[in-house]
Every structure is written in structure tokens, then in C-alpha cells.
Amino acid sequence: MNNEKSQFALLSTQRFAPFFWTQFLGAFNDNVFKNALILLIAYRGKTHIANADVMINAAAGLFILPFFLFSATAGQFADKYEKSKLIQWIKLFEISIMAVASVGFFTHSLSLLMFLLFCMGIHSAFFGPVKYSIIPQHLNSDEIVGGNALVEMGTFIAILLGTILGGVLIQQKNGELWVSLAICAIALGGWLSSRKIPHAEPPSPELSVNWNPFTQIWTTIQFSRRVQSVFLSILAISWFWFLGAAYLTQLPNFTKQVLRSSESVVTLLLTMFSVGVGVGSLLCERLSGKKVELGLVPLGSIGLSIFGIDLFFAYTPPPVTELMGIWQFLQTSGSFRVLADLVLIGVFGGFYTVPLYAFIQIRTEPEYRSRMIAANNILNALMMVISSLMGAIMLGVAKLTTPQFFLTLALMNIAVSVYIYTVVPEFVMRFLIWIFTHTFYRVRHTDLDNIPDEGAAVLVSNHVSFMDGPIIAGACRRPIRFVMFEPIYRLPVLNFIFKTGKAIPIDSQRTAPETYRKAFESVAAALKEGELVCIFPEGKLTENGEIDVFKPGIMRILEDNPVPVVPLALRGLWGSFFSKKVKMSRLSGRFWSEIEVVAGTRLSPQGLNPEKLRDVVKELRGAKP
To answer: Are 483 and 443 in contact (CB under 8 A)?
Structure first.
């Protein structure tokens, strides 16, 4: 049955909660330290620093550079060593960094603090591969999206709280002292939490570590190209971090120079962005039905572009001589539009990243999952460093305004998105499926865990509407090869979905013998490769809502390929918009119909016949056509 347990239930489990709080406190501490340092530069450093724009971008670059230099080595460590102990050593390193950072704040040593920011980047670079590779080891397959959503939500809430705390503490009298106490205490809390993380067996203990970071960077990037779909997902995530780094790095100066507001408004803007990412991440599990839904990725990129462009037009600087506080800013025209844009950029950013992270985890073999995550971190870091350089050049040298820079980013996102979705049409295909199934239907799923997580199987379903294939594809966690009546396969728009999803068109042997022959060859090849194949044995849409006779072609498939059979039943589709009960030209069908996809017990191919399969599917469907 549907699993109604909330993703928040994971926070009460030993296998997830200690890890969650460890990563939360690490991200929290990063941002207390980093934001205190950036605000120190932006608001108190003008008398000592000639160009605060360049220094702020340099600080962002110093934090990110270790991800590029050391992630490859970190990925090897995470695959070779037991992860809970590795995390504890990483947290001890964080404590030592923060102890020295306290000295830097007391002595007002900007050079020391910048170096320690680089060290915190090293700490985070080693934690990254462990962070994402440990999730599939401790969570079930239907918990992975929820677990990733909580991690993303927690990370950005930690960014929010760390940013607020760092900003508030550095503005106090003796602010450097308060920041020093906070970062040491948080680091200690992260280490104590890490001691409760359950044992996570190393997947490749025999791995020989290459200590040369430069040769290993190239090896790891090449390693990530082993699975093309995973590599392309890594590139898509890296582009998001290019955008995110650009937006977040420029917010302090955007606030001061464009919004004409104080440090408190910087904190407000970062709050809005972080809340948006948290909400978007948590919504992913509900919108995706607890499975990895790549269709949310194009939706995310559309929102990032729309609201990034709007941010350029949202605000006209008021004629003020002094920087405004929060309440003064909120009373100016366009302030709420700026806040809404940042929230929605965050929401759609969550839609964009959570499915991609989960996809990398489930499509990568455990033996080298950490190294794949390391490759992701390397490319993320490279794009973030490029983002910092681009910000420094375009703002500090080319003298673009911050709104012009934001507009440039949004337009670049459109161009990159068009390229990605042209190269990988699966994203658009899944997006169209998601739009169709969430616009016209309210889909419930029952017992879909009867469909095997791996290996070949034949799914057998009744055939009620033109949307049966997309509905089943949208409900199932695994890709499915559909055998479809060729006239349905050729329908406009749906043809793009079916073709991209590698559906197999079929027609009658009498009408199109070549198509008929090729269909059976394609089915045999797909099953040999361990794929799922879905058949509609009626061979046509129902004319009256009842299940028609199952044709014998299904037996030919099972005789040549004796794989398990999973019966499916579609309930509630008869009378919906795309069923034959509706005359399409009159637009009289039921929109947002409540329907259900039900899976029966897995059947052995021995002893099956078309009549028995039809009876099983009919019983599953029940009285409601």
C-alpha cells in the first residue's frame, strides 16, 4: 500500500538522525564563520581594502578551491574506509580549525582568517563524498528521495541560521569574541553527533589511494563518465552551483549598493533564499511520489530563469543617504518583489537539485559511489570558482551592476538548459509525463514494490486510455519499455515521450508484419538486458470500460523469455479525458480524475495463459473501470 509515513520520521531513526545533525552542524559552522568574515570585509574593510568586491569573491573562491583540489582524494577515502570513523576524524579537524580561527578573530588577522577559510573548504571537501554516499547505505530505496530532501533542506536551513548568527554576532560589541566562542562550540557539537552515526561498511577496502591530487582529479572525472546519464546529471548539478554561488556571493554588495540597505537586510535576503530551497527540497518527495523524478529538473530550471530575470526588474534604488534597516526596506516599492524572487529561486533550485542527487546515488554502483560523488564535487567546485572569477571580472573590472549580472546569469541559464535538454531529451520526456499526470489526474499507487528493483520482468496491464503508458511510467521508479499499438505511438507530443522512453511500436502481423517482427526482437533484447517491459495484451483501448480478451502474443514473449510477470491494473480511468468514452473535440472528459495504479503479486511464467492473466488483472481492477 502507499507509504504515508512522512520523510520527517527519518529524523527519529538512529540510522539517519546522527548523520543529519552532523552535516547540519557542519554547514551551520561553515556559514557562521564565512558570513562573519564576509561582513567584516564588506562593511568594515573599506578603509583597509581597495576593492571589497574582489576580496569577497576571493573569499568565496578560497572556500571552494579545496573541493576542486581534494575531492578526488576524499572520494577514495570514502570508498576505502569505514565512513562513521572517517566522519569523526573530519570533525576533529574542524575543531582544530575553529580553535585557530579564534586567534585570527582576536588578532584581526585577515590573512590568517582567509587561510582558515581555505582549511574549512578542505574539511567540507572531505566530508562531501561521505555525506552523499552514506545515504543509500542506511536508507531504503523509497526513503532516498526523502533523505536527500532532508539533507538539502537541512543544509540550507543551516546556511540560513549560520548566516544569521554570523551576521548578528559580528555586529555585537566584542563581536569577534562571540563568533569565536560560537564556532568552537558548534564544531564540538558536530563531533559529538558524529559519534552516534552507525557503522557503514567500506565498499572498496582494497582500493589503493593515489595521493597525487592532480592526477587523481583527472582519473576521477574520467571515472564519472562511465555512466553517461550520471555524468550529465553531475554537469547539471554543477551548473546549479555556478548559479547559486554567483547569487549568494553578490548578495551583500547587492544589498548595500542597489537596495541601499544594511547588514540586517543581507540576512533577510539569505533567509528568504534558504527558506525557498528548504521548501522546494521538501516538496520534492510529495511531487515525485517518493521516487526519483527527473521531470522536476526542467521545472526547476524554468523557475530559475523566470525569477532570475524578474530580479533584474524588481527594484529601483530609493534616494536615501543612509543605509536602511529591515523595516525601512520593506516600506520601499519593490521590496516584496525582491523577496518573492529570492524565495522562488530557492524553491525551484530545490526542485532542480534533489532529484539529480538522488539519481546519481541510485544509478551508481556502491563500489565506486563515493568517487562518483567526488567527481560531482570537483566539477561543482570548478564551476563555483569560475563563478567567483566571473563575478570579480564582470563586477570589479567590466563594471556591470549587480542587477545586470543577475540578468546575465538568468539568460545564461536559459541557454544552458536548452543545450542540456537537447542532449538529454529524457529530462523533457519525464517533465511532460509529470505535467500530464499531475494536470489531468490525481494518481494513487498500491503495492508497486511488487515490481522488482532490478532484473528483467514483464508488466501486464489493462488498456483504458491514451495516457496509460505515461501514467505507469510516472508511477514506477524504474524505466520501462512499453510495447504500444503503433497508431498510439505516433500521436503528437506523446510520440516524443514514447520515442524518448524507447517504447516499442507494434501492429498486427497481418497489417504490418515487419513492425510485428521487430517488436518481438526488441522485447527479447530488452529483457535480455535486464529491463522492464510493459505489455497491454488487449492490443487496443477498451471501447466500453471492460477488459477485453488478452491476445496470445504475451505467451510468445514469455516462451522465448521466461521472466517474472507483474500484473497491473489501472482504476478510475474510464471516462477521464483521454479515454474513448470521451469525445475529445468536446473537451468533456473529467479533469484531475482520481485514478489508481495497482500491482499484483509477482507471477512465475510457468503455467500462465492469456485467460489466467486477464482474470488476475480483472480481479486487481475490481468493479471500477
So the answer is: no
Closest residue by Cα to residue 201 from 80, 111, 304: 80
Q: What type of residue is 318?
A: P
Q: In what order do the strands lie in the sheet with 593-599?
A: 441-446, 593-599, 565-571, 457-461, 532-535, 480-485, 504-506
pLDDT tens digits along 116-173: 889 988 888 888 888 878 888 888 877 887 888 888 888 878 887 887 888 788 877 8
Helical segments of 455-592, H only: 468-475, 486-489, 494-500, 513-528, 553-560
171-177 contacts, C-beta under 8 A, 24 or more apart: 171/39, 171/263, 175/36, 176/105, 176/106, 176/108, 177/105, 177/106
Q: Looking up cell 536551513, which residue turns up?
A: 157
Cell of 518: 521487430
Q: Where are the alpha helices (DSSP H) in 440-502?
A: 468-475, 486-489, 494-500
Q: 169 vs 24, 173, 370, 601, CA distance in Å?
A: 19, 8, 36, 60
Contact 377, 69 (CB under 8 A): no
> What three-state secondary structure class fits 469?
helix
> Cα separation of 388 and 579, whole Å?
53
User: What pTM value is reported for the model?
Assistant: 0.74
Cell of residue 584, nine digits: 475529445
Asked if 288 and 443 touch (Cβ cutoff 8 Å), the reply is no
Residue 388 cell numbers, joined: 567567483
CB 243 within 8 A of CB 406: no
Q: What is the pLDDT of residues 51-109, one digit of tens each?
A: 566 676 677 678 878 887 888 888 888 888 888 899 999 999 999 999 999 888 888 77
Check if the beta carbon of residue 331 is closer than 8 Å to that of residue 276.
Answer: no
Task: Determine contact, residues 267/164, Cβ cutoff 8 Å.
Answer: yes
Question: How does DSSP classify residue 590?
Answer: B
Query: Rounded to whole angstroms, what are the CA distances from 47 to 25, 275, 365?
Result: 34, 34, 54
pLDDT digits (tens, 9 = 90+) for 577-609: 777 765 544 444 456 678 889 999 999 988 888
Give CA torsion, residues 535, 537, 543, 549, to 10 deg.
Answer: -160
C-alpha cell of 57? 569573491
Residue 28: HSE in the Cβ half-sphere, 13 Å Cα cutoff:
23
Q: Which residues contact 226 (CB under 8 A, 6 or more apart)?
A: none
- Compute how many other C-beta atoms are within 10 angstroms of the C-beta atom of residue 174: 9
CB 506 within 8 A of CB 484: yes
CB-CB contact of 167 with 262 (8 Å): no
Q: Which domains does the chain have, with CATH numbers?
A: 13-423 (1.20.1250.20), 441-621 (3.40.1130.10)
Q: At how many degrees (to 10) do helices 144-170 and 335-362 cross?
A: 140
User: Residue 381 belongs to what H/E stretch?
Assistant: helix 369-391
Rg of the chain (C-alpha set):
27
Residues in a beta bridge with 475: none
